[in-house]
Amino acid sequence: MTNNTLADFNKLTTAEAEALYQREVLAEGFAGFRRLLDSLTEAIKAARDTDMETVAHAVAKAKRLFPEPLEFSPSWENIWPELESTIAAKTHIFTNIPPGDRVGEWQVIMDNPLVVQEVVCYPALSFEDAAYLYAYFRPQLEKSEYIRLQKIQTVIQEIGG
Predict the structure, then answer these.
(1) In which domain of life is the source organism classified (predicted)?
(2) Does 10 share its domain with 87?
């Protein structure tokens, strides 16, 4: 496939180029569509404040070109709403945490206090990594679950042995 990066995908500006790309992906099937999804996911993960609109447009274009991702795999039935929700959650974080407050160590915690299960914690993250994890998991929360994105102000750590 010629266009297998997000940069290439974003360069598809004519209806003819989009139709050719669409035919190539459809002909390749699962693998071609998977490459597109992987590039979109990586773009969402790497996106900064100023990139969010571009990434949202890329997902909208992919959704328009491939409105039935279920044709490629049953596991992708809800991929477009999932990616859109991840973008919305990450945009929400960028909107609510000013750039000057982002330096330092961050963590993401998930729990459901109404059931007996482990608390999930992703510690020692950069702001960018924590923002992505929060945005990725936020749309998947079940009833009574919560997710927290928090900055670590003070850390005391000891290692046994």
Answers:
(1) Bacteria
(2) yes
pLDDT digits (tens, 9 = 90+) for 23-38: 999 999 999 999 999 9
One domain, residues 71 and 138:
no
Amino acid 64 reads R
Q: How many CA atoms lie within 13 A of 91 on its CB side?
A: 13
- Region for 108 from its dihedrals, namely left if φ exceeds 0, alpha if ψ lies in -120 to 50, beta otherwise: beta
Predicted TM-score (pTM) of this structure:
0.89
> What is the token pair recorded at 66?
């491939």
Low-confidence stretches of the chain (pLDDT beneath 50): 1-3
* Distance (Å, whole) CA 12 – CA 156: 51
Single residue among 43, 68, 96 that ends a domain in this structure? 96
Phi, psi dihedral angles at 125 (to 5 degrees) = -105, 155
How far does CA 58 lie from the centroid of its chain? 13
Domain extent, residue 76, equals 1-96
Report d(CA 120, CA 66) in Å as an integer.
34
